[in-house]
Specification:
12% of the residues lie in helices and 36% in strands. With 210 residues, the protein is mainly β. The strands form 2 sheets. Strands 1, 2, 4, 6, 9, 10, 12 and 13 form an 8-stranded antiparallel sheet that branches. The chain is elongated and about 70 Å long.
Amino acid sequence: MTIPAIESWAPRELGDAPMMNRRVGDVHRFLSNRPAARMVGMKRSKLPQGSYSVLPFYPLGREGSPVTSYETWPGMVPVSKSDWTTGQDTAWQFLVPVDGRYRITINGSFTTDTGLEDLRHQLTVEIGVNPAAGTGDAVAAASVDTVTPAQVTNFTLSGGHSTVQRLTKGSKVQFAAKCLSSPAFGWADDAVSQQYTFGSFAEIRWVGTI
């Protein structure tokens, strides 16, 4: 499927079936099934201090019950187990199917190995577009927005963030996190995620033309 052409209407223009199909039917079908996808965070612990680590996600439908991951257009998220081994960081990403403005959302929970009393953990999450292959630092270098989750307890942080970006067909969206205040940190720990309504996930959704 592609984005339908938007045709102008002229005063007193007579419409026929092909015209109505193009100007109304095709546009309605696209808007009712816009490109969108969600991946649920896959638990990863002991991520190292001081460098960015790619945030991993389950492939489509593999997060267990209830299933909340989805894609409206095939090919937007990984679906094969071979795509998401820990050695395949670049598989944990969204693939943009058509040009447009996309709302990118990241929500989740993090655990640290250090309790800081009333001090704030120095943990940041980067949303990267078209990073070079491989590492979390490459994702950070391609960052279009930065997230700083709120500290919930001495050991945990949680929160969500959305940004709207102009993306072209074939663009890749990926996420990475870094913590400076703890020797190691974790992402999407089940015991922490269950405290929050939406858990740990990332989502993209087409919201308009470029």
